[in-house]
Specification:
The complex is a heterodimer of chains A (about 300) and B (about 700). Chain A is mostly helical. Chain A is built from twelve helices and no strands. Chain A is elongated. In chain B, strand 16 and strand 17 form a beta hairpin. Classes of the chains: A mainly alpha (about 300), B alpha/beta (about 700).
Chain lengths: ~300, ~700
């Protein structure tokens, strides 16, 4: 029915109007209720991170030795840790760390992966072969081991954690993007661009990259959750973010071992925050994949 | 619409009259569709895909449903099988098959009819067979299910069926899987499956659209022959008017969900009574007509069925529309057994004569004497197929020593079946692929070894138009950006002037300036193809490779684009390398034609000479296989159907590549490779026996 969709060329015909953002969001949540839940969690996290100072009256780094290990009550909704720091405000501020690391590392990693993947697919042949083998070597290391190695070299701290997580993200993104880009490379419009004598970079950036956006977005959202988890793991192992910066993994490290029985809230709430965040990003990423995939085919 | 329905219902009388004329038909129709309406619910609204459609089919006859894509021709046939999608809803009508209304049967009863009494053959033989089952089992399955045959009986019947559809060595074929068969073979297997239970009705939905022209002829001859011999009624759904003219007894023309004309093939083709049918017939290029006339095309595009025009659906595109046409015309009898839905069907002859002087002849821009713009000298392109550890690497000779030349302002048509290397040759000329050997002289300089800087300069002078208007435009760019980009990259115009030039180019290809802000998915197929042409023109090229540039378009749109290409050639003095598999289109558009078979040029001559006086047996076979949309001519043409199929380019036959299929091959043809030789001035043939 494709050829009947528009009317005669002699009249200004109606073009199918783009649905508004609100309508798209509505359709998305109707089709993927779980994905919408994930999206909601993500939004809550972002709000927490942005408006942290307004959401809590406690300084997340201020010690209050009068209220050490206080259980959840009216003053401290989620209780305090062994230094008397308010857990709620540490979790809220911790969202900043988690999102900073999660977004920056997966954005940078996926974007580099996008460029490398499309370039590799475009040139093909020996370049592609060599490049893919290098990626294979990177992929051979489990994510966490690779991140550990990077931290061992560069040292700890937020900035280094970001680098440590970015590097293993690159080959994963590159591989997925390359698979889609291989199909795009065979499209006649890429041939048309070559026949027009466009430069390689123009074809890669202007003609191929916009057309692999769907898989790119999917891997991006999936990687944010992953990155948050790795950051928490590294911090828990003492190789990531350092005290006194509020970070969820770090809070677990301080609380879990010593106070598991006497003050369980010290470990439970940061643990919940990590779980919810990863859960939210993964649900949202999955739903996004279902949502974008059929559209890629048309 | 009610009136049309009433007329449709009163029609069987006239059909009876036709059947009385034909001795092969028994008195009772096997299939009678009356007043059928089907609608689909889509997210954009209600689509009435079929409206008040009715036709009858008698045993042993072949009835064609013709129409462009989206006209509802497939939906009407799928309704017979009750295979419509979930979103479809039959709102009215009856489908009487052998005395029973199929629409009233429950699912179990319907299941017993499908594949037993009514069979269906689909377009795509590649996907309609199950790839993991042996074809023997797939043929025997309906025999087990419907006839309860034993293993042995079914096997014997399967062998009989494969022999019937012309498959050699049937016993061993039973053990094969679909991927081991060629496209034509698979379609034969599909027909065998369809015939397995001795059906009374066979529905073929575009059965040969995916096949090459010589294979198409084989399959249709087979179907026609089987229908006659076994008395099976065949409904064939197609957009190809030539097929209809050659094979169909009766024709129903559909336009925008309605039947606009129906009658015997002779009546509908010889004396069409609906402006759409007339328009279609004059819009298709024909093998028996040269390039003297422009095609008379139907302007515009078929209507959007979400909001169809009021009254006659064809009114917005009709040259003869009058005020009365806002009322839907009923399908009425215009002569015995010939019905048309047009208020002015009786005046059409007179009206046509009045407008006849609008035929404009193609100008005298004939072959010029100046030197060629493009010369190919012994161009070859071999693809290595990597071997395994124990298998040696193989070489596919996709293009093998091709020598051609194209003069300025001239069109060279390159015809051949799929896999003959014609598209590869086009890509090599454009240097999208590098040639293995030979010289590509463009305006005297050799491109075969040109560096990227040299190529950059040449790329402005040569352009390409692709087959598929859906995938040849970047979906993420607006039409304006697509057309403007080459000018910007090559700095042909300053940035602020590009916008005006885009508007100019759009109007040159018959589109509107406001379309520059659209995205490709907001345009129809024909409009997209025009954007592709505008993009090619944006750098002011001298030479354009048209790779199947019109074959993905509907008949009426195809004519428009052909006219556009011809008009642009005259206006801008362009040269075309026109690659196509449709002989009629090539005949219409080309000055010179080269016929390609398995990587080699087998015949090369001026178009008129080649079509009037084909020398090479392959050219002759191709011409014989291509139908002409005129039953009167078709009935007098000799049937010379070439046997066999295109050999694998991995294992080309020794000697002349055509020898296994050639009717005049002699012993020597298996040994010696014939070179192109000059038979007459400008007529080259690669055959030692002519």
């Amino acid at each position: 029915m494709a050829s009947t969709e528009t009317a005669s060329a002699t009249v200004i015909e109606d073009i199918p109007r783009r649905p508004t953002i609100l309508a798209t969001l509505g359709a998305f949540s109707r089709e993927n209720p779980l994905g919408a839940c994930g999206g909601f969690i993500v939004i809550v996290m972002i709000v927490m991170a942005f408006f942290a100072p307004w959401l809590t009256s406690y300084d997340p780094t201020a010690n209050d030795f009068g209220a050490m290990l206080a259980p959840p009550d009216g003053d401290h909704f989620l209780g305090t840790d062994q230094f008397g720091r308010d857990l709620l405000s540490r979790i809220i501020y911790g969202a900043r760390t988690a999102l900073l690391v999660g977004f920056v590392s997966s954005f940078v990693g996926c974007f580099l992966g996008l460029i490398l993947g499309v370039t590799s697919a475009y040139f093909g042949g020996r370049f592609d072969l060599l490049f893919q083998r290098v990626m294979d070597v990177f992929m051979a290391f489990p994510l966490i081991i690779l991140a550990l190695a990077v931290v061992a070299i560069f040292g700890t701290g937020v900035q280094n954690v970001i680098i440590a997580i970015t590097i293993p993200v690159i080959p994963r993104a590159a591989r997925i993007v390359r698979a889609s880009a291989l199909a795009i490379r065979e499209m006649p419009y890429v041939d048309a661009a070559r026949a027009n004598g466009f430069s390689h970079s123009r074809i890669i950036f202007r003609h191929m990259m916009p057309n692999v956006m769907a898989p790119f977005l999917i891997i991006l959202t999936a990687q944010v959750g992953q990155a948050i988890l790795i950051e928490a793991s590294l911090s828990y192992l003492g190789l990531g973010v350092q005290e006194p910066i509020p970070a969820w993994g770090l809070m677990l490290r301080g609380g879990a071992q010593e106070y598991a029985e006497s003050a369980p809230w010290v470990a439970i709430f940061p643990g919940l925050a990590i779980t919810l965040a990863v859960f939210g990003f993964n649900l949202f990423g999955d739903a996004l994949r279902d949502w974008l995939d059929p559209k890629m085919k048309t | 619409m009610q009136t049309a329905a009433a007329q449709g219902a009163s029609a069987p009388l006239s059909d009876e009259a036709i059947s009385a004329r034909s001795a092969t038909k028994s008195g009772r129709p096997i299939l009678e569709i009356e007043n059928l309406s089907v609608q689909f619910r889509s997210s954009h609204g209600l689509v009435r895909a079929v409206e008040n459609v009715g036709y009858t089919v008698y045993p042993g006859e072949m009835v064609a449903i013709v129409g462009e894509s989206g006209s509802g021709k497939s939906v009407s046939a799928l309704t017979v099988m009750r295979l419509l999608a979930q979103t479809a809803e039959v709102t009215s009508g009856t489908v009487m098959f052998d005395g029973r209304d199929l629409l009233k049967l429950d699912n179990e009863e319907m299941r017993r009819i499908r594949g037993h009494h009514v069979s269906m053959i689909f377009q795509e033989p590649m996907t309609s067979l199950n790839p993991v089952l042996r074809i023997g089992l797939q043929i025997m399955e309906p025999l087990f299910i419907h006839l309860g045959m034993t293993e042995e009986a079914a096997k014997a019947r399967a062998i009989e069926l494969l022999t019937l559809v012309g498959i050699t060595d049937p016993e061993s074929r039973l053990e094969q899987y679909p991927h081991q068969l060629s496209g034509g073979m698979r379609q034969r297997v599909m027909i065998a499956i369809g015939l397995a239970c001795d059906p009374k009705l066979l529905i073929a939905d575009e059965p040969t659209t995916a096949l090459d022209v010589t294979i198409q002829a084989q399959i249709l001859e087979l179907m026609k022959d089987l229908s006659r011999r076994l008395g099976i009624a065949v409904v064939i759904i197609t957009h190809n008017l030539g097929i209809v003219a050659r094979y169909a007894d009766r024709v129903n023309v559909m336009y925008a969900a309605r039947i606009v004309e129906s009658g015997t093939a002779e009546d509908v083709f010889g004396n069409p009574r609906h402006p759409y049918a007339r328009g279609l017939l004059s819009a298709v290029p024909r093998l028996d007509r040269g390039r003297a006339m422009r095609l008379q095309t139907i302007e515009g595009a078929p209507p959007n069925l979400l909001k169809p025009p009021e009254g006659c659906r064809f009114r917005p595109r009709c040259r003869f529309a009058i005020d009365k046409c806002v009322v839907s015309p009923p399908l009425v009898e215009v002569e015995q057994g010939h019905r048309a839905a047009c208020h002015r069907s009786m005046e059409l002859d007179k009206l046509e004569k009045l407008g006849a002087d609008s035929h404009d002849a193609i100008g005298a821009a004939e072959i010029t004497t100046s030197g060629p713009i493009l010369q190919l000298q012994g161009v070859s392109k071999f693809f290595p197929i990597a071997g395994g550890f124990f298998k040696p690497a193989k070489l596919v000779r996709a293009v093998n020593k091709v020598t051609l030349d194209i003069a300025p302002g001239e069109t060279l048509g390159l015809v051949g079946e799929s896999g003959c290397g014609k598209s590869t040759l086009g890509r090599v000329v454009l240097r999208l692929d590098d040639p293995t050997d030979g010289k590509i002289l463009f305006e005297g300089s050799d491109l075969a070894n040109a560096g990227s800087d040299e190529m950059l300069a040449v790329r402005k002078k040569m352009q390409v138009i692709f087959q598929d208007p859906f995938s040849s435009l970047n979906p993420r760019m607006t039409v304006g950006d697509i057309i403007g980009e080459p000018m910007q990259v090559h700095k042909i115009l300053p940035k602020d002037k590009i916008h005006d030039r885009v508007a100019e180019l759009l109007s040159l290809v018959g589109l509107h300036g406001y379309m520059a802000d659209r995205y490709p998915h907001q345009l129809s197929g024909g409009q997209r193809q025009r954007v592709g042409i505008a993009r090619a023109l944006s750098v002011n090229p001298k030479f354009i490779v048209c790779d199947e540039a019109v074959s993905a378009l509907d008949v009426s749109i195809q004519g428009q684009v052909i006219n556009l290409l011809e008009g642009l050639q005259q206006k801008l003095g362009l040269s075309y390398l026109f690659i196509a598999h449709d002989l009629a289109v090539v005949r219409h558009i080309s000055h010179k034609v080269a016929v390609m078979y398995l990587g080699k040029i087998v015949e090369y001559a001026p178009a008129d000479e080649l079509f009037a006086n084909p020398k090479h047996p392959y050219t002759q076979a191709l011409l014989a296989a291509a139908p002409i949309p005129d039953p009167a001519i078709e009935r007098t043409r000799p049937r010379r159907i070439i046997t066999g199929e295109l050999p694998s380019p991995l294992r080309p036959p020794p000697g002349c590549v055509f020898n296994p299929r050639c009717p005049i091959a002699v012993e020597n043809c298996r040994k010696e490779i014939p070179e192109l030789r000059n038979l007459a001035p400008m007529h080259w043939v690669a055959c030692s026996e002519v």
